[in-house]
Amino acid sequence: MNKKTVFSISIWLLLGLLSGFIFLNLTSSKSLPDVLEKASPSVVNIWSIKKWKAWQEKSNLLGFKRYQQVVKTGFFPNGSGVVFDNDGKIVTNYHVIKEAYKNNQKLIIELNNGEINEAVILGFSEISDIAVIQTINNSNLKPLKIKRNIDDLRVGEQVIAIGNPQGLGKSFSMGIVSAINRQFKNVNGSFIQTDASINPGNSGGALIDREGNLIGITNLIETTSGGSQGLNFAIPIDEVLRIYDEIIN
Question: What does the DSSP 8-state code read for residue 198?
Answer without folding.
Answer: -
